[in-house]
Amino acid sequence: MKVILLENIKGVGKKDDVINANDGYARNFLLPRKLAIEANNKNLNDLKSRETSNAFRKSEDKKKAEEIKKQIEKLYLKIDVKSGENGKIFGGVTSKEISDELKKQYNIDVDKKKIDLKETIKTIGVFDINIKLFEGVIAKLKLTVNGIGR
Prior knowledge:
Layout: E1 2-5, E2 18-20, H1 23-30, E3 36-38, H2 41-73, E4 76-82, E5 88-93, H3 95-106, E6 115-116, E7 121-123, E8 125-134, E9 137-148
Parallel strand pairs: 4-9
Antiparallel strand pairs: 1-2, 1-3, 5-7, 6-8, 8-9
């Protein structure tokens, strides 16, 4: 019996996969627990239209990410922090601070989780920061950390 999975099932398949399941397994386990639906013409057409809309939405999101990438790569973000005499920063610059400064200075909203910062920046200088905007779309941001006296 052909069925369309509604959820990921370990050892069977992933959501929206069309699989050939044993009749008993499908009728007694998958269908009653609403883990799958029968793969008839109506359900297959619904699945195809859902996949088409998901692909369109994904391509639109990628286009937006490409536009944001172009904007970010033109920028030079500057952050002023308190520092000591030898260039050491009190505290550090985190991905949250970078995200907040991008929003404040250039009105570009980037989630802090997308900023690829190996560890907190603890020195003054110029840094190249990678921002993962989308699958395969990575923007490089020039960040200047300036120290100001106490």
